[in-house]
Amino acid sequence: xxxxxxxxxxxxxxxxGLSLVNKGYTIKQVWSKQLKNADILAEKLNSTSTDELxxxxxxxxxxxxxxxxxxxxxxxxxxxxxxxxxxxxxxLEVFDNKCKNYGVLxxxxxxxxxxxxxxxxxxxxxxxxxxxxxKELLNIGNNLSKKVVKMSSEQRKQLHIAAVFACNFSNxxxxxxxxxxxxxxxxxxxxLPIINxxxxxxxxxxxxxVQTGPAKRKDKKIIESHIKKLSDKETKEIYKxxxxxxxxxxx
Amino acid sequence: xxxxxxxxxxxxxxxxGLSLVNKGYTIKQVWSKQLKNADILAEKLNSTSTDELxxxxxxxxxxxxxxxxxxxxxxxxxxxxxxxxxxxxxxLEVFDNKCKNYGVLxxxxxxxxxxxxxxxxxxxxxxxxxxxxxKELLNIGNNLSKKVVKMSSEQRKQLHIAAVFACNFSNxxxxxxxxxxxxxxxxxxxxLPIINxxxxxxxxxxxxxVQTGPAKRKDKKIIESHIKKLSDKETKEIYKxxxxxxxxxxx
Lengths: 251, 251
What we know:
Two copies of one chain form a homodimer.
Chain A: E1 3-7, H1 11-22, E2 26-31, H2 35-44, E3 48-50, E4 61-64, H3 68-76, E5 83-85, E6 102-107, E7 124-128, H4 131-144, E8 148-150, H5 153-183, H6 192-200, H7 220-229, H8 233-249
Parallel strand pairs in A: 1-2, 1-4, 2-3, 4-5, 5-6, 7-8
Antiparallel strand pairs in A: 6-7
C-alpha cells in the first residue's frame, strides 16, 4: 500500500502527508474543495492536485482527512476500496456498505500547518472492518509512530473528548492568561515555567491529586477578588465555573 | 540577611525553605499553626519549630508563607522588622505602618510538597517599601532563581490571576480528561504527547493563534455529540462555556 490519494489539505492532511512521504510512501494526488489549497499541499508532497472527487486517481489507499462536518458528504461521492478516515469523533460505521476494506487511523495530536512536530511520538489509534485491512493499517501506523494502539469507535470518541479538554481547553486557558497579561503589559513568557511544571507533574502524578491554587484551598476571598478584577463577563463565568468544579472535586 | 525565620509549613514554605538552605541560608525556626507540621519541615531544614507566634527567634529576615486567607491574621501577631510575604494576590500594603522594612517575594510556580522542581527556573517577583530592602530582596531572589523581576502589587495580582488560568485551570482540564479516560478504561498517558505539543507551541506562538479542535472549527455537530456523551451536568457546562468562549474569540 505504497500509493496513496490524500483527500483533504488541512492541518491533519498536511502533517500526515509530510510524514508519509518522509517514510517512503507516494502521495499520488491531493484533493481539496479549494484547488489552491490542494496545489499548495501537492507541491509540498511532490504530488498532483484536484478539486474533483470524481477524478480521483487509482491508488492502493485513500485517506480522507477532512473536517468532521464534511466527512460524510465527501465519502458519499467517492467510489473506491481501501479507504480510511482520520477522525477521532466519527465511527467506523460511516463507511458501512460502501466498500470492502475500510478503517480509521486517528493520530492523537494537535496539528497546525505552520508548527513542526515529531510525528513518531504521536499516538495513532487504529480500527478496521476486517483483520487483513487492520494489519495493513497497523503496518502504516508503525511506520509513522512508535505508539500504535487498536481502539474501538466508542473508545476513540471518549479519547477525543478527553483530548478536547486536555489540549483545546487547556490551550484556551493559556489564551485567556495571555490576554490578561497583555492588558497589564506583562510578558507571557513569565508563565512558561509554571505551565511546564504543571505538565511535568502529569508524568508521575494524577492531575486531580496535584491540583494547587485558590480553588483547591477553597480560598473564597481570593476567588471573589479575582472575579471582580476580570474585565469581561464570559471570563468571569469561566473563572467561577472552573473554580466551583475544582472545589466540588475536593469536598 | 543569612538568618531567616520561616512562618508557614505548606507547599510554598517547604520548597522555598529547601531552596534557601541549599543556597547557604540558615532557617533558624519554622512556625506552623500545627506544631507537627512545623516539626516535619524543621527536620528537613535542620531547624527548630514552634507553634507560638509570640516566641519567634531573632533573625535577619522573616518570611511569611502562609495561606492567603490567613496572612493578615498572622501578620497582626508579629512584631518584627525585615518581613516579607510570598503571596501573588496580596498587596505590599498589608504591612503598612507595621514595620520599617517590608516586601514581597512571589515565586511564580505550582508547588506540591512531594513533587520536586528546579527552583532556579522559577520566576521570582520582588517588591519592597524602600530601595535598601528592595536590594536585599533582589539579592536573595538572584541567589534562588535565574529570573527575578521587580513588579508592583497591582501587576502581581494580574499575574496571579493569569497563573490561575494557565496552571490551576489547565490542570483541572487534565483532571477532567483523566476522569473521562478512566471511565472508558483508556490510559491517560496516551494524552501526554498532545499535551506536550500544546505547551511546546507556546514557546513560539500565541495560544489564541494556534488553537485547534471542534470549537475552533465551529463544528457544532461534534460539540453537541460530545456534550451529550459527558456524564455529569457540571462537566457538560464547562464543555459548553469554554467552547462558546473559543468560538467567540474566532468570530
